[in-house]
Design goal:
By secondary structure, this protein is mostly helical. Helices cover 43% and strands 0% of the residues. It has one domain.
């Protein structure tokens, strides 16, 4: 997905993110997926399945 974004193909990255995938080893507080989502789908809220941010 990062390669697609770097190549200017945000729609390809967005399609892969919307299709969904599991990441088994991300820890709470990890923000790499929400940063990727913001780049690929800037007008859409982050889905809960990709939200590993710390909550107060």
């Amino acid at each position: 997905m990062r390669a697609s974004l770097a190549a200017g193909s945000s729609e390809r990255a967005a399609a892969a993110l919307r299709a969904g995938f599991d990441v088994d080893d991300l820890r709470e507080g990890e923000v790499s997926l929400d940063a990727l989502w913001d780049q690929a789908c800037p007008d859409e809220p982050l889905p809960a399945r990709y939200d590993f941010r710390m909550k107060p």
